[in-house]
Predict the structure of NmrA-like domain-containing protein.
Amino acid sequence: MKNILVFGATGPQANPVAKKLLAEGYKVRALVRDSAKAQDLVAAGAETVVGDMTDSASVSAAMQGQDGVFLLVSFIAGRFDMATTVIDAAVANGIKKIVWNTTGPIIPVVTGNPSIDIRRDILAALEKSSIPFVALQPTVYMENFLLPFLSEEVVEKNLLAYPMPAAVECQWISHLDAASFAVAGFKRESRDNLNIEISGPEKLSGPKIAERFSKALGRSISFRPMPPKEFGAKLPYGGNGDLVASYYEKVFADPSMMTTNVDFDRAVGALPIAPTSVEDFCRIYKEQFTRM
């Protein structure tokens, strides 16, 4: 399996997947809506084709000659028909494997949040397709801390703010590690479907995350549980802040919603990677958390 079609490759989650595939010697084709936003991929050696996940003709054309597909449906703007367009085209074009980043956990009950609830439907569509697949269920991304209004608070006030109770323990994951798990999914020789939770190597509360930031930055950082409405109001997602704030309000009411219990050893046993710790992540992005 050498030829991989990547969806969402100009976005922050799929872009590292495309680049890591290229670094590992795969031939990458990226379907993008705006080729001007894909110049970094072209420079890295990817082929880009213009299309849209809502357009079956462009999706099918992009799949010709490909062995595998990396699927990611946007959490904010994604729709179920985008996934089915890709899956149907994959069946028609004889794709050998789909690696799907679910963008979060697949919750077995209706949550009322369509961005979360469509994951169950996408999983069912993949199971029905008969194409071997790897479904990667990430926890919460460390890159959330790079949101400007959060990183600025680290810089200006030495506060690490996030809308969760201080006691919530979560296994944060980086985009880089999620990309590594995806590449490992394509390398996996078994044709059996794999539906697996993925995370970083540490289970940390808010204050423990702040301790890791303190070590990486060389100064004392404290954790601040940010009120969900404050977080939602500052999000740059145009109209989706209330939905996000509503989710985090539920987390404050029921901290178990964000507490994770991923079997990390199982994840790296099935899909071997070299994990990134929170301290590692903070060192990588040290400049963004430091007054220049």
The mean pLDDT is 94. Residues 142-170+201-260+276-289 form a domain with the UDP-galactose 4-epimerase; domain 1 fold (CATH 3.90.25.10). The first strand starts at residue 3 and ends at 7.
